[in-house]
Structure formats: C-alpha cells, structure tokens
Specification:
Elements (H helix, E strand, L loop, with lengths): L1 E3 L6 H13 L12 E4 L3 H14 L7 E4 L5 H10 L3 E4 L1 H9 L10 E5 L1 H4 L5 H10 L5 E6 L4 H7 L8 E3 L12 E7 L5 H8 L7 E5 L3 H13 L4 E4 L5 H12 L5 E4 L12 E6 L6 H8 L9 E7 L4 H11 L7 E2 L5 H7 L25 H11 L3 H19 L12 E4 L5 E4 L2 H13 L6 E2 L3 E2 L3 E2 L5 H8 L4 H7 L1
Parallel strand pairs: 1-6, 1-7, 2-4, 2-5, 3-4, 5-6, 8-13, 8-14, 9-11, 9-12, 10-11, 12-13
Antiparallel strand pairs: 15-16, 17-18, 18-19
Helix pairs in contact: 1-2, 4-6
C-alpha cells in the first residue's frame, strides 16, 4: 500500500501499529530473526522511529533495533546476535551488515519505506533495489510520505503488487497546514544574520528550527548566533554522530532553543514545541519547502514559517510559490531595520543584533552530554597504571633536560659536532672535544682557498651545499693541511 498524509499527522504510528499487530499476533514465530524492516533516509529519523515503535510495543516485549552509520559495528552486531524482532535502519549500514551475514532478511514479513519519495529518489534507489532482492517475495510492503509525486508513484508500482493508494486528507486540502502562517522576505546575504537575530527575539517564541542548504553555512550560522548570546546548536553531515545526537537531545530538552540544520532534520523529525521555522536559504524545490515548514504547526498547533530569499534565489522561490499556490511570487525587500519586519512578526522595537543578558536563560549545548566524548574519556582513563607511570617518568626526564639546557640526561658531557674532510659528520665528547676546538680555532686563522671546478683545498669534492656550509666543512683542518693541498 501507499500511504500519504500531511506532515505531523502521525504517519509513523499509521504503519507502526499494524506492523506490531501483525508480527505479534501469534501466527509468526519470533525466533530472534527480524520479521519487520523499516528503511528510513536519515539517522535522526531512524532514532525517532525506533523510539516510537518501542513505546508502542512496550507491553508486547518486542525488540526494536536501530541500525545506522556513525556508530560502531560491534554493538549492532551483538544486538543482532542476541535477537531482534523489528529493525529500523538506513540503507548503507543495513546493506553492510546484510552482506557480512550478520543481518538476516530472509524472514522479513513486513517492509516499510518511510519518506518513500526520498527513498525512491535516484540517490537511494540502487540501495533500495538491493534490499528488495534480499527480502522474501511474499511480504507486505508499505510506502509512507507526505509528498508522492507522480513519477515516484509510477516507480513504486513496479515492485508493488496491486497497491492501494490511501490519502489521509481531503481531496481539495492543501499540502500545507492552514494553521501555519508564512512570511517571505528578500534579504541581502550580508544582512541575514542581523535579520535572523531580530527574528529570534519575537514575542512568545518557542523552539526554532533554522534551515540552510549547505553544511558550512549551518555551522557558521550556529556559531554566529552563539556568539550573539543565543543558545544554538547545529545538525549537519560534517558533525560526528555523537555531536548530532547531542544537539538534538539538547533541543528536545530545551537546553537550546535554536537548532540550525541542513535538510537532514527536515524529514520526519517531530519535536514538541517548535513554533518557528526559518529558511535561512531558499529550499531547493517545493518538496523541500513543504517538509521544512512541516516541522511546525503539527498536530493541530499553530506555527510560523519565515523564508529569506536572496537576489539570486528569486526564480527558485517563484517556482515554489506557484507549485503550492502561495500567491507570494515576489518577496518584499527587507533589511534588519525594516519597520514591516518588526510589525509582521511582533518583534520588540528595542531588539538589536544581540540577545540581552537578561534573556539568556538557557543552559546551552555544553549542558548536554556527548556520548562520543564520554567514550573517548573512558578509553583514555582505562589505560594501564604502568602506562601512566611511564608517562610520568618521561615528563620528569624532560623537565630535568630542560633545566640543564640539553636534551641529554643530566651529567652527560656535552657533545660537540664536527665534520670530516669528506663531509661526513662526527661527534666527540669529553677531553677529545677540547682538541677539536683547538684545531677549529687554528684553522680559522688562515684564509681559505678554492680551486676551479668546484673543489676545495685539499682536492676534496665540493659537497654541493651553499657557501656557508662549505666554509664550515673546511674550517676543521689546520693551515698545514691547506698548504699540503696547494
């Protein structure tokens, strides 16, 4: 079947409850091999769907396992060995474990593609086709998403048997919630951070999602907002999985109230209390716009969606406006000091580019623990005591060497470096060093002569080094040696 409904209408439980009921009815033996497989496009959505299914099947004692990249293989392999009933995962890690024969898909009875239009896009389609070849032909297949373009539905019917297309909305209903107010402004790139800083000071603002197109922009905006006093975090592909989960946990627990993200957080992420969504950069297409602003105004609540369009993005925005029949093809030119910005969004007139100290009440991202950092600290602390003693002895030795002004242990005669006539280096210590010093002082009193052909006095070949090195190489020999060479 193909299920389609607006964002925030509960599609996860729409396929989750029938899935749980079917595998727990008793006619399917649960022997620790996965009987249901849910494939999702992002790691964040994988964790959210896993939590929802775990909560729904808690009384039935069903074992739900998330499988996604960015985490060690060992823990996931151990969980599969212990036995699971439902697997929720991203295509890449699912295929890795299946090809290593740790994940057995031969007994799957229910297959779900969440955000199916994204999963059947050209980027994921080869992986999905490989997964379909691993699961049994006799199965139930369900596709769910808020957007189902015609070509995607046509493609989906190629591997579905007599599918039923169910729309969880009225025929004439728009894809965007009526309770979501939409504002579009044409903003200059150099003024966007100032403008965003004032937008984040609107009255009665709750949690806010800020979307960017690139990972670099997401991190830069998050850093700028943090420097201006806002409690902000970032979620994008350049961050490690631990840092991404840390930012999402801090956002859910309201330790930070601004989350800057790329489109990895636009699909299916459900966080209670999001009142504002800001498109810092214009979305790529109408689908991305719909999924972005669908993070607010969920489950009957009201929301505000603000889109900042740069001059070179006007054509793209016009296509989005026409596709959703928004009636806003030409955004109003707006700056951080524009009066209509303060009026439209109910921004206090005294708002500036920095958050006042009295309003900085959030704990911040650092108040949320990072699993990866904790693992690294425990790994460093778990080293043997002998290793710590060895390091302490090495530190004491280096301190003693610094006190004596040498890299040698205390009490060792200072080495003097000299050069042989052939350019080879040698070292002498102790009493021999005095003789070497005497030879050097005697040799330095006579002028050095060079012969044509690049050979120095004494018919020794030139070392090929600059003149200063040649001079140092010949200065070790006394005047008698030079006379003999002549």
């Amino acid at each position: 079947m193909i299920g389609q409904a607006r964002t925030g209408t509960g599609k996860t439980l729409g396929f989750g409850v029938p899935l749980i009921q079917r595998i727990s009815a008793g006619d399917i033996a649960l022997d620790g091999t996965p009987r249901a497989l849910v494939v999702v496009p992002t790691r964040e959505l994988c964790l959210q769907v896993t939590q929802d299914l775990t909560d729904a099947g808690r009384d039935l004692k069903l074992r739900v396992l998330p499988i996604y990249g960015g985490r060690p293989y060992e823990l996931q392999i151990k969980a599969l060995t212990d036995g699971v009933d439902i697997v929720v995962g991203t295509p890449g890690r699912l295929l890795d474990l299946a090809e290593q024969r740790h994940l057995v898909l031969g007994k799957v009875k229910v297959l779900v593609l969440d955000e199916a239009d994204e999963m059947l896009d050209l980027g994921f389609l080869p992986d999905i086709e490989r997964i379909l070849r691993m699961v049994p032909e006799q199965r139930q297949t369900m596709l769910f998403s808020a957007t189902m373009p015609g070509p995607i539905i046509t493609l989906a019917r190629t591997f579905l048997t007599q599918p039923t297309h169910i729309r969880g909305e009225e025929v004439d209903a728009t894809a965007i919630h009526e309770r979501t107010r939409q504002f579009v402004y044409r903003a200059h790139a150099l003024d966007k951070v100032e403008l965003l800083s004032r937008v984040l000071q609107v009255r009665d603002r709750g949690l806010t999602l800020v979307f960017t197109r690139t990972k670099r922009t997401a991190q830069k905006v998050a850093d700028d907002l943090t420097e201006r006093g806002f409690a902000a975090g970032a979620v994008h592909g350049d961050l490690g999985q631990g840092a991404r989960e840390q930012a999402l946990r801090a956002f859910r627990s309201e330790k930070v109230d601004v989350l800057v993200a790329t489109d990895v957080a636009a699909r299916g992420i459900d966080v209670t209390g999001i009142t504002h969504v800001v498109n810092y950069q214009c979305p790529e297409d109408e689908k991305a716009y719909l999924h972005r602003i669908g993070r607010t105004g969920r489950a009957g609540r009201e929301g505000v969606a603000i889109t900042l369009v740069d001059w070179d993005e006007e054509l793209r925005w016009k296509m989005i406006s026409d596709a959703h029949d928004l009636g806003m093809p030409e955004p109003v030119e707006t700056y951080s000091t524009s009066e209509h910005l303060f009026t439209d969004l109910d921004i206090p007139s005294d708002a500036t580019g920095r958050l006042p100290l009295a309003r900085r009440t959030r704990a911040g991202l650092s108040a949320e623990h990072n699993d990866e950092a904790k693992q690294r600290r425990s790994a460093r602390g778990g080293r043997s005591g002998s290793g710590r003693q060895e390091r302490s002895r090495g530190q004491e030795q280096r301190r003693g060497q610094e006190q004596h002004g040498s890299t040698e242990p205390p009490g060792t005669p200072r080495r003097r470096r000299r050069r042989t006539r052939a350019g080879e280096s040698g070292e002498s210590t102790g009493p021999d060093a005095a003789g070497t010093e005497q030879e050097r002082s005697e040799g330095s009193g006579r002028p050095r002569r060079r012969r044509r052909g690049g050979r120095t006095a004494g018919n020794q070949p030139d070392s090929g080094r600059p003149g200063s090195d040649d001079q140092a190489g010949a200065s070790h020999s006394g005047g008698g040696d030079q006379a003999a060479g002549q």
